[in-house]
Amino acid sequence: MDGDRTTQVWASIVDCAAREAVPLSIRHVCLACAKAISASGAGVVLLSSLDTHEPVHATDVRSEELEDLQAAVGEGPGVDTLSAGAPTLVDDLASRDSRSRWPVFAAEACRLGVRGMFSLPVGAGAIQVGVLDLYRDGVGGLTAGELADALVYVDALLLLALNGQAGTEAAEGILADESMLRRAEVHQAAGMVSVQLGVPVADALVRLRAYAYARDLRVAEVARAVVRRTLRFSPDGDPPAPEQDQGGMS
Fold this sequence. Notes:
alpha+beta; 5 strands; 250 residues; Beta-Lactamase
C-alpha cells in the first residue's frame, strides 16, 4: 500500500474528527471517504454474532434508508459483497443488468436519485467484518486512484471495528455516535419481538425490517414503537394496522 496515500487518508479521518472535537470513530471514516471519492453518501454494515447484518453508520438519511432497504429485501450490492466477500462495483443501478440482479433495490435506489454504488468488503484474509457501501448520484465507475483511496479507508474501518470489539478508545467514539444509539434501540426491540413471537432474535429483526418496509417507515421508528409498547407483534396474526400504532412512531 502506498505510504503517502495511507498517510493522506488517515490525516483526512483525523481532521474530520478534530473539526468536531470528538473521538475518532467509524462515522469519520465514512464522511472522509465519501468526500475523497466524491460520493454523495456512505454506509457501513458490520456482521453481527447473529449471522445477520446491521447498519452501524450512514452519512445521511438517504444512505441509511438504502442500507435498511438492502436488509429488508435481502438484495443489493452490499448484500452480495457480504455474502461473497468480494467488491461489487456498479456503474449504473438503472442498467438492465442491475435491475435484473436487484429488481427491488435498484428501482428504489434510482427513485431516490442514486445511480452509482460501490460495495467493498471490510476484512483481512479469513476475517470478514462487514462492508462499506458508497453511493453516487451520477453514472460512472471509480478511477484507479479513487478505488485505491477507498481501499485504504476500508483498512481504517477494519482497524476501528476490531478495536471496537476489543473495547478500546475507538469503541467510545462509535458508541457516542447517534446512529449507533438508534441501533441499540432496534436490537432492544428485536429482543422484545423475539419473546412476543417465540422466534430467534435474528428472525425477529427480519420481521421488524419487513414491517417497516411494507409500510414505508424507518426501522428505527418501528423499533421505538415496540420499545414504547405502542406496537406489539402477535404470533397469531399480523401486527396492528398502521392507524393503530402511528402514535408511537413519531
